[in-house]
Model the fold of this input.
Amino acid sequence: MSEEKLKILFLSPEVVPFAKTGGLADVAGSLPGALKRMGIDIRSVLPFYRTVSEGDFEIRPLPDELEVPLGTELLKAKVLETRTQDDVPFYLIDREDLYDRRNLYGNPTGDYYDNLERFVFFAHAALRLAENLRFKPDVVHCHDWQTGLVPALLKGPYRNNPNLSGTSSVFTIHNIGYQGIFPEEKLVITGLPRDEFFRIDGLEFWGNISLLKAGIVYSDAVTTVSLKYAQEIQTPEYGMGMEGILQARRTFLHGILNGVDYGLWDPRHDAHIPASYSPQKMAGKSRCKEALLKEMGLDESLKSRPLLGVISRLDSQKGFDLLVELLEDILALDVGLVVLGSGDETIQKAIEEAAERHPGRVGLFIGFNEPLAHRIMAGADIFLIPSRYEPCGLTQMYALRYGTVPVVRATGGLEDTIVQFDPKTNKGNGFKFGPFNSKAFLNAIKKAIDCFRVPETWKRLMLNGMKADFSWDRSARQYIELYRSIIKGSTNNIKVS
Ligand code: ADP
Done:
């Protein structure tokens, strides 16, 4: 089969620019374009969320409605079509009662009560849509628990479907912490026969059902987003209860690092930042820093002192409880701090209080703000990511491109992308610490600050990062190799990593 003919159905619960809560949206927004440029016939499917209906997108309805099973019912759904800048067709499953809501997955108080129904419906709808479009995918590429049912459906109710009987599936884990767990009695909603699927070697997980586990067990290949995380999730420390099944599936498990969309994240042409810059012309970076200090109400004198930046969900995974422990020690180092994020209220409050104690030194924006994220990337000097675990992490790769030096915990994709800087040899692109404790984190921050105070060294370090290339091409090639190795009838059973 030639590369041009490889047909991929790409299913993600969030995609830039339509709907985003985290890095998965960035990946699902840029990987399909990279695959398309390599000659793959790729079609993406996404729920028609309110962010899409209220956004400024050119959307057209498809003439035919879908009939989608949900438990014992057969429900209708409309489908809309749009195209991204990369000319990838996106199909939006329109079902007002399920997707027309303020948020993607829940309110600040908790997940939506019907998330199982919402994503079971999405899974069936995507497979029915392929049939309606007469699109016979070689591979369905599914992302995270919200699409984890699809590999099980392909091995169960759809295995004799003429449109899908030749279809294989890849399941990508972007975060093992989100497992799509629902009570056993809801199994009937999924459309899977109980005897065959509700088993310890099926989607049963401690008496419940787990859609993440369904994806792991029933797909033809499992991937996760860095080599290191692929190893980590096979251990009790990082596997969150899935380590056993991942060990059992280890010959099918691959680590493929996420790429960066430099069309969106590059200070040479970033429309969100006040001045552009590049390794050859760095003056714009100081202008971005000055503008950021002003925007966040920080002291002008920080211009010549290190400005530390954070852009993150503030939850336990990301490790900012360590930052809270260290706020006074860090501020004693004569630095500024800018934080963009939301989540854990104790963390938010501690940073707010530090801002009151140190006027002009700490800037905090609580919420989700894409343009501000770009301005912090450009305006900060040092970028902090003390994650407990980090499947891949995108912000450290963005920070590198913006000459903002990452200080990270050596875990998952952070371990794979950040190379410890050595001021003697001038090699490396950031600073890492191993043990998850505040002393180790503070030491790494101090090392970064020491280098900042030697301008020649700092410049070398910034340039090392800015020159690194994490564009999608390499990873997209690895995915294509993987797709080819699992398509039905293939004898090409290679390991991509
Ligand atoms: P995760 O997906 O675990 O949240 P990643 O590093 O893979 O972590 O991706 C995070 C993405 O979300 C990045 O694009 C980052 O810029 C963005 N982001 C995180 N928090 C915010 C926020 N408060 N405002 C704007 N963008 C944010």
Remarks:
- The chain is about 35% helix and 20% strand.
- Residues 3-259+472-488 form a domain with the Rossmann fold fold (CATH 3.40.50.2000).
- The longest helix spans residues 115-132.
